[in-house]
Amino acid sequence: MNIALRKWLEVVRFELVYQLGRRSTWLFFALFLLMLFGQVNGDVLSAREIGVLFNAPLFVARGAASAALFALLIVAAIAGDAATRDVQLRMEPLFRSTPLGAAAHHGGRAAGAFLVVALLLAVVPLAFMLASFIHPSAEAELLGPFRPAAYLQSYLLVGLPNAFIATGLLFALASLVRHTLGSYIGAALVFVGSLVSQLVIGGKLGRWDLAKLLDSTGTAALSVMSRTWSPGDLRTRTIATDSALLTNRLLWIAIALAALAFAYTRFRAGAVAFNGMNRTHRTDKTDGTNQSYPLQPSYPSYKSYSSPTSHSTRTRLHQTLTIAHDSLREIATGWIWIVLPLLVLQTAAKLQLQGILDTPLLRTPGPILQALDNPLNTVVVFVLLLAGELVWRERDANMQALADPAPVPDWVRFAGRLLGIGFVVVALHALLMLAAIVFDVQGGWEHFRLAPYLQLLFGIELAGTLAFALFAFALHVLVNQKHVGLVLGIVLSAVLPQVLPDFGITHPLLVDSLDPIWRYSDFSGFAPFLGQVLWLELYWGAWALLFAIVARLFWVRGVQPRLRERLRIARRRFTGWTAGAAVATFALIVLAGGFVFYNTNVLNAYAAPAEGPQRQAEYERRYGRYEHTAQPELTATKLHVELYPERRNAHVRGEQRLVNHTPRPLDTIHIAVAPAASTDIDTGAIQFDRPARATIADDALGHRTYVLAQPLQPGESLQMRWQLRYAPRGFPARGISTDVVGNGSFFVMQDWLPRIGYQPGRALTNAGERKLHGLPPRPFVASLDDPNVRQASYARTPVDLDVTIGTAADQTAVTSGELRRSWSHNGRRYFHYATSSPIGSEYAVFSARYAVRRTRWRDVTLEVVHHPGHAHNAQRMLRSMEVSLAQFSQRFGPYPHKVLRMIEYPASGSSAHAAPSTIWYKEQFALLDPDQHPRQLDLPFAATAHEVAHQWWGAQLRLARAEGIILLSESLAWYSAMGVVEQQYGDAHLQRLLGEMRRAYLDPRSRAGVPLLRATEWFNGYRKGAFAMYALREYAGQQNVDLALRRLLAAHSRPEQPLALSTDLLHELRQVTPASLHSLLGDLFERNTFWELKTNKATARPAANGQWQVSLDVVARKVVVDAEGKETEVAMQDLIEVGVFAGENEPLYRAMHRIRTGPQTITVTVPRKPGRAGIDPRHLLIDVQPDDNMVTPTDR
Amino acid sequence: MELHIRNVSKTYPNGVQALKDVTLTIPAGMYGLLGPNGAGKSTLMRMIATLQEPDRGSIHLGELDVVRQKDAVRETLGYLPQEFGVYPKVSAEKLLEHFAILKGIVDRRARREVVEALLRQTNLWDVRRQKLGGYSGGMRQRFGVAVALLGNPKLMIVDEPTAGLDPAERVRFLNLLSELGEHSVVILSTHIVEDVSELCTRMAIIDRGEILLEAEPLRAVEELKGRIWRRVISKDALPQLEREHHVISTKLLAGRTLVHVHAEASPGAGFEPVEPDLEDVYFTTMAGRQRAEQAETAA
Fold first, then answer.
1. What whole-number distance in Å separates Cα of residue A720 and Cα of residue A655?
2. Which of A1115-1119, B20-24, B42-46, B182-186 shows the lowest per-residue confidence on average (mean pLDDT)?
């Protein structure tokens, strides 16, 4: 063997043995195994939840990718150490002088580090394999046949390449800047790069092809696979079949090699004195001072300087400030310049506030504050990094022997550095606040308020970050190994809180999550979350303090002592003062923790997250048998609601009428009350207007059974009276109830009131969870093949509603129905609402300091009830309601109520919900800013029309809870709204709306699926179904489609009529369309059909009379994809629009042509020179690649 | 003020016993701690400088317990470690000021004066604005001296200070130390005999963790008077000579070997008496220990 190679191998071997011989390496391994354990466990649970095979090749590979992402931290520590050890230990000249050369040495180091990481990641497939055999929850259903290739490929294509790429990049970075922190920054870059690829390049820009290449971890490529592969592929296909992944691997291996080579050449060329961030001092040497000293024959005679030294408290203060200043100098000349841009980038990315369909949000505190949360987590990690640097500041400079004997107490050093970090933290918070304010003000001054920013950044977050700094410091002092401290710190603060919940450990006293538990609303600020936030902060802050007090005892001064010596020294440092401080801090922990515990476990019943499903399962097991038991029906409800917003309290008195609509006498009434175990509602006794006795009163699960002394005869009615109290006590462990708050109360009354009969809606729906709890499988909705499918109802019998609400004097209370009267009494405001036509059982109660904008359309009162500061869209919403009501009542039939209200309520998100006569929308819906939409779309207008359409499709059309329900509700709502948008803004705007909706195609998605008739999921209902209805409108004419819908409504809107199914819609559509379109109907609704239409080329040449002849080379194909992903090509002979346009979209020619499978040429003559031409220009047919339909013709 | 070291022992995790039951009393003035590399000098220095703790035994500076009252000891302590680094990106003046504050010189005027005086004293005044990363070994050593001198130390510990200095610098430094010795306890650890002989009023010889001799250099030399003999021989004759006589040191002299022998009376022909110096004291002590050990193993 070549001598040089053998020497080099010796270096590799040495590095391997060195790393494996270090205690820290094994600690990293242990930490990694711990994380892996958590991850595998979580993956088993999530495989069940999303219903994939736990040992499917792609699933294992994705597991390997996320484990490799976890491992980045450890790679950073190992590669960083390998790259910079010589510099750190000042051994570099020694190695440089070896015949092998330092650069070769360097390469050996890199190879050694890679082997260690490769070894580490080899554990991942083994862990997944092991888990599939021994994990208690990995049942047979979760496992396909055992495939060694799955595990092997997950290592060879994901784990091993990631080990190489990460080690290579991080090693190169660390050796270029000659500091281990280079590798940590590298790890952050790899991580951020992966996120940016997926969230921004893929998610935002839709360039998934690029994202797959740019994500060095391969996660984006794997994620695209998981979304585009059919269910069959997901179970069995191996990842080696994906060329994008292979390309990505090769590309990044090449980049890693290039980075190593670059570092290598720099290293060869680099002098010893090259020192990344401080290259200047090399020149300092040449100023000739050495020559000058022979001129000074001797030192001046020594005289004793009677310098006044002092060790008073003032001195200590001065020294603390000096050390703080020194710490700041260290921070300011170092890594902050790398972290700061990262922070700025992250903040900038997060501040791109967007709501639905790319509509920007108004720049107001709510969304901005939510966006700041992630950058704040970066600050936390930065603090951990800084704390390590500062704790090791003197030792890193090898100056401890000079500095440690200085007469400065340990606490002064501790406090000084903490102060330094504290200053930086405050500065960073101020910077973030400034960024937020500038961003806010750019959107105009009218919404600007300083208070929320101050409250969040300097109230809620600052104390938490400072407490974390204390913890980070203490951890570094205790661990006394910089990298171990860093890795351990990140594991403890960021990873553990993610993993522990999978093991059922969730109590906020045990897990301090980085996720915010607050939510900001313009209605109520940070209330009602503030109390919990502050108490928990106090509690965790006290722990950090105690930890720091303990750590101070172990502060290393002078020579690195052994553990036993550290203990001995600590024992000596443990003075009365320390003991006192520790006891006081512990008392604070007990006090704050006790108060939290009192709130979460005494005032509220503490339930681990697993208990929720358990209760649901128990409810079904015990009372599911009453699901089909005949019950009287609710026909009228009269409520008196007293809200006490300032006390977060409410009291409801109810009187309801039940009628026996069944042909038999009924003597047993089952009533579902709000379960006391999971809500803050206490339902009192229920009284009937005839003798009855309770036989079951299970308030924990929320079921009561009453037996009437005299059965209720058919047609006979019964009065039922009850009272309930809503009184949240303190704060629960998680999920503070926001039903009634200081300002902005909102609750859906169904959740509060007693309801008749067993409530299937309370049962578990997730298939995996049902199995886990031993429940029989139960589809989420009834199958169309189920003979009883029309019985599957949401039980929405219309009721007459009469509600009186009392609330605070300055608030407006709203619910469904017309406002009959409002008055003041005893310093409170009262509102009386009643319906003049029965409505369903879904209605909500609102109370806030509202502003109301009102108009009338015929005899219907239209209202937008909103936060006074959120008037931005009120006018256009009102306008949309008006146009919609006018148009829909003409197209589909009359609007049955005297009022239509849209009401804003505080909640995160920007969605809206329609209930009969009432539409409620979340705060961010009000903040949508369509004026700033990049492609000029008035989304609030369109969305309002969509919600108003639900007054027909959902509120009037009575839907069976069956497959295809989403087609009948959401697709029809969009179909209806299109007409309103078109009427108000014209066809171009409608095309823009459709264009925005079609952007959903940019998200990678498997084409496997059910036909629209059986659709249940979002994409089919809100997008594909809407496109299908639009296509139909253009093929068959809106008149005809509307006629079909009118007929559908007429047949399924009254209680005595059967519930509507998607097949009923298809039936009605068939009636109104000519036979020539029936195959299109079948393609759109009965089969999951995709057209692949493409114009390869268009040529235009002048013809006679100044006309132009355009000939199009198009290629067409039609496939039907089943739910498993099996594609069947079907011969096509379809009528498809061909269009030629002048400029961008001035139509010159638009006509239907018969298009068959395969390539074909179409020639048309147009009056002017064409600008664009192609097939299906309006994208009427379902084609997941709409971009290639149109081309610019070339002249011939 | 005296420094009392009583029964101090220290064993390192790798099993090396650095100090074995060391007892010393160090009075004011210059005190030399002489010993070969690895004798335990630095361990002892670090213990006195509060940077390390003995496994057993006690160290007292006057009334102060060095182990338990570290903070009080540090207030009067000046320590120049054998090996140390500095912040490379900071100027000497800035860092010295920083140390001055740490030593408790908080008054700005006084601090300025002290810093200037010390920088002049250590001949660094002209390069005070230069970054420490650009200092040569000798300059850095002088900077360490300036740090050690801050705050008027009553106890000065200098660990192998002359190792990195050129001969001229060494002389200047030793002069400075001797001046300092007039005011306080100065402990100088070194493996260079001249350092001690030129400066110290008292000394101890330490080897492998044990104190072999505690004496005043002049008296120790005096005591050897008439007992050291020299002879120049060929290299081959050395083993024979070593068997017959108590050889304390050998030295090459123009290709032949110069041997020093310890004997109460003339060891024989070819030997001539020499005036002993401290080196002879040192080698006699070391050789005596060796001899004793050999005798032990022989028995």
1. 6
2. B182-186
For residue B75, the chain A residue with the least C-alpha distance is A407
- The number of beta carbons lying within 10 Å of the beta carbon of residue A76 is 29
- pLDDT band, very low/low/confident/very high, at A285 (cuts 50, 70, 90): very low
Instruction: Name the phi and psi angles at A520, rounded to 5.
Output: -100, 140
Q: Among residues of chain A, what percentage have pLDDT more than 70?
A: 94
- CB contact under 8 Å between A558 and B88, yes or no, is no
Question: What are A369's two structure tokens?
Answer: 């504050």
Residue with tokens 């095979």: A53
Which residue pairs, CB below 8 angstroms and at least 24 apart, start in A1095-1099? Answer: A1095/A1173, A1095/A1174, A1095/A1175, A1095/A1188, A1095/A1189, A1095/A1190, A1095/A1191, A1096/A1159, A1096/A1191, A1097/A1191, A1097/A1194, A1098/A1170, A1098/A1173, A1098/A1174, A1098/A1191, A1098/A1192, A1098/A1193, A1098/A1194, A1099/A1193, A1099/A1194, A1099/A1195, A1099/A1196
Q: ω before A528 within 30° of 0 (cis)?
A: yes
* Local structure of A411: helix, strand or coil: helix
Given an 8 Å threshold on Cβ–Cβ distance, is A280 in contact with B84?
Answer: no
Mean pLDDT (whole number) for B162-185? 79
SS3 at position A204 = helix
* CA gap A55, A63 in Å, rounded: 10
Cα distance between residue B148 and residue B81, in whole Å = 9
List the 330-389 stretch of A: residues with Cβ below 8 A of B.
333
Longest dimension (CA), chain A: 123
Q: For A306, which residue in chain B has the nearest alpha carbon? A: B152
Select from B84, B99, B172 the Cβ nearest to the Cβ of A401: B84
Q: What is the ipTM of this complex?
A: 0.88
Please give the distance of CA A842 from its chain centroid, rounded to a whole number.
28
Contacts of A546 (CB under 8 A, 6+ apart): A582, A585, A586, A589
**Judging by DSSP bridges, how do beta strands B56-61 and A828-834 pair with one another?**
unpaired
Which residue in A302, A395, A552, A553 has the most chain B C-beta atoms within 10 A of its own C-beta, making it the best mutation to test that interface? A302
How many whole angstroms from its chain centre is CA B233? 33
pLDDT tens digits for range B116-134? 999 988 888 999 999 998 8
A399 near B CB under 8 A: yes
Q: Which residues contact A268 (CB under 8 A, 6 or more apart)?
A: A101, A103
Contact call for A558 and B52, based on CB within 8 A: yes
CB pairs under 8 A between A and B: 163
Rounded Cα–Cα distance for residues A932 and A442 (Å)? 13
> What is the pairing mode between strands B185-190 and B29-34?
parallel
Residue of A nearest to B107 (CA): A308
Tokens representing A622 are 């015990």
Put simply, the answer to whether A305 touches B114 (Cβ < 8 Å) is yes
Range list of β-strands (E), A437-494: none
What are the distances in angstroms from CA B102 to CA A243, A477, B74, B185?
63, 20, 11, 22
Query: B 14-53 residues with CB below 8 A of A?
Result: 46, 49-53
**Verdict on whether the full-model pTM lies above 0.90:** no
Q: Exposure pattern of A804-820 as b/e (b: 16+ CB <10 Å)?
A: bbbbbeebbbbbbbbbe
The whole-angstrom distance between A415's CA and the closest CA on chain B is: 14
Q: Among all residues of chain A, which has the CA nearest to that of B133?
A: A281
Residue in this structure with the two tokens 């009542």, named with its chain if needed: A889
Q: Is B131 on the interface with A (CB under 8 A)?
A: yes
pLDDT score, position A1034? 94
Chain A interface disruption, residue of B55, B102, B112, B145, most A CBs within 10 A: B102
Beta bridge partners of A1068: none
Q: Mark yes or no for CB contact B123/A299 under 8 Å.
A: yes
Amino acid found at A143: L
Strand A1146-1156, strand A1158-1166: pairing: unpaired
